[in-house]
Design goal:
Layout: H1 17-26, E1 30-37, H2 42-50, E2 57-61, H3 66-73, H4 84-101, E3 111-120, E4 131-138, E5 147-155, H5 160-180, H6 185-191, E6 201-209, H7 218-227, E7 233-236, E8 242-243, H8 245-249, E9 253-258, H9 266-279, E10 290-297, E11 302-303, E12 306-307, H10 309-321, E13 325-329, H11 334-342, E14 349-354, H12 355-361, H13 373-382, E15 386-391, E16 393-394, E17 400-401, H14 413-421, E18 425-427, H15 440-449, H16 462-469
Parallel strand pairs: 1-2, 1-3, 9-10, 9-14, 10-13, 14-15, 15-18
Antiparallel strand pairs: 3-4, 4-5, 5-6, 7-8, 7-13, 11-12, 16-17
Helix pairs in contact: 1-2, 1-5, 2-5, 11-13
């Protein structure tokens, strides 16, 4: 069923929040409930104020008291309320009530929806700025199954009242986009920030599901979040699905490996395994609470100035197939990555990297935008409980470069020595020498030329997946599988 409204002539103009709510209210077939916990009834307020809401708003409620909320939606296993599981219970419960109480015989064309949010605004001490889950479960055709859009937000404002107003605008944008922009999910994503600023709100996770979103890849939607500046990083679990970074990183010992992983090679996996073996032996590291992250920066996703989304999909698919958790970030500098992790954990962290990466860290050109220059960056990087695990580099003559003979700019020599001799940089010694001459760019070149032999440079199963899916331009009929 097409949703239209007469008089909607300029589709490029941004309607006001009131106009969006009014357009929803005036559509006689859109009908549903609002359930909001933790920040008042800020979204439904927009629809009440717009007018004409009697045909749209079936019910508005806020089960603010925890005991009352538990009585309606049940008790969560972790006893928490601002969670995705809680939000989904709210959406399901309210949709079920609509289906029970409103007969299709009387309302054959009604498109039911349930909008919900569960939110914690900024605390009185202003230590935690607040966050929340927001979602909608809805139909675009009375005879179709339900669709869902679920997202996680983090507030940036320092005032609870402002956060409430921001939430109300976001909720209205979401409902409007769900009904009027569902066929253009990328635009729907951008329109969530209509009449909002990115300094007010961060969206760090979003998932689309249902019949109208069958062709939507949620990983690509997450990439749009980073690309559009809506968040600094998004994360994918080994099953390939979006996951909330806070859920994965909270109070964990974190070991991170940054790379292009184009594709992931045996040397990448050797660096991972050997650095992890060293990391979990640290006295301050709990193996049971250790999380490994493979990180790709946005700059590594660019081809000729634009993000190559298919290339991104190829890399993420391969890493996830190896059972790894993948972070896509907007952090060009390592200290920003460490600062990001520090939001979620104060436990010891590790960075595994090659020689060239460590040399780059000591290059002053990356810190000219900081008033304190490289010293400010290093204060942010190494002030944390952090250790760098350095993988050696094989030179053309067969010799190795390690932390002992690594060459940095003369002005950086003493700074480098300070961190090395204070145990912040340690060498990976138990490496696999047979992988030192494996490079992603060499593998890519061989694939593009249709040459054989690149398969043995990759972890088990990766070459098969590359050929099966024709990744990185691989022509399967030309290349036999010789893993």
């Amino acid at each position: 069923m097409e949703i239209t409204l007469k008089g909607d002539t300029n589709i490029e103009s941004i309607p006001s929040i009131k106009d969006k709510a009014l357009r929803i209210n005036l559509n006689q077939n859109i009908y549903g409930t609002f359930s909001e916990i933790g920040a008042g009834q800020e979204t439904v307020r927009q629809f009440f104020r717009a007018g004409g809401g009697s045909g749209t708003i079936a019910k508005a409620m806020s089960a603010y008291d925890k005991d009352f909320s538990d009585a309606i939606y049940g008790i969560e296993d972790d006893r928490r309320y601002v969670t995705e599981a809680r939000l989904r219970k709210m959406l399901d419960h309210e949709i079920n009530l609509i289906e029970q109480r409103i007969t299709r015989d009387k309302h054959p064309h009604k498109m039911f929806f349930s909008y919900a949010n569960t939110v914690a605004t900024i605390d009185f001490a202003k230590k935690y700025k607040g966050h929340g889950w927001v979602g909608i479960k809805y139909q675009v055709d009375a005879e179709q199954d339900y669709n869902e859009i679920v997202l996680h937000i983090r507030f940036k404002e320092n005032d609870a009242r402002l956060q409430q107003e921001t939430l109300g605008k976001l909720g209205t944008n979401l409902i409007y986009g769900a009904f009027y922009k569902y066929n253009e999910p990328r635009k729907l994503l951008r329109y969530l920030y209509d009449h909002l600023d990115k300094d007010q709100l961060e969206i760090d996770t979003i998932n689309f599901s249902g019949p109208i979103f069958e062709d939507v890849d949620n990983r690509l939607m997450s990439l749009q979040l980073v690309k559009n500046g809506m968040t600094d990083a998004v994360m994918f679990a080994p099953d390939g699905n979006n996951v909330l970074p806070a859920r994965v990183l909270y109070k964990k010992n974190i070991l991170a490996l940054r790379g292009s992983f184009r594709p992931v090679t045996k040397v990448n996996m050797d660096m991972y395994q050997k650095s992890l073996d060293m990391f979990i032996k640290e006295s301050k590291v709990d193996e049971e609470k250790t999380q490994v992250i493979f990180e790709i920066t946005l700059s590594n996703l660019r081809a000729e100035g634009e993000i190559d989304e298919q290339d991104f999909m190829d890399r993420a698919r391969l890493l996830c197939s190896l059972g790894q958790t993948v972070l896509i970030s907007n952090f060009q500098e390592y200290y920003k990555l460490v600062e990001y992790f520090s939001q979620y954990s104060k436990a010891r962290m590790g960075l595994a990297m090659g020689v060239n990466n460590l040399v780059d860290i000591f290059d002053e050109k990356y810190y000219r935008h900081l008033s304190g220059g490289i010293l400010e960056a290093f204060g942010k990087l190494f002030f944390k409980d952090l250790r760098v695990y350095l993988y050696p580099m094989q030179n053309d003559d067969g010799s190795l470069t390690t932390s002992n003979d690594l060459k940095v700019h003369p002005r950086m020599k003493e700074l480098y020595k300070f961190f090395k001799y204070n145990g912040k940089v340690v060498d990976i010694t138990d490496y696999d020498a047979s992988t030192l001459n494996v490079f992603s760019r060499k593998v890519l070149s061989m694939i593009s030329k249709g040459e054989d032999g690149w398969q043995k440079m990759l972890p088990e199963g990766v070459s098969s997946l590359i050929m099966e899916k024709s990744l990185f331009g691989c022509e399967t009929e030309e290349i036999p599988n010789r893993e």
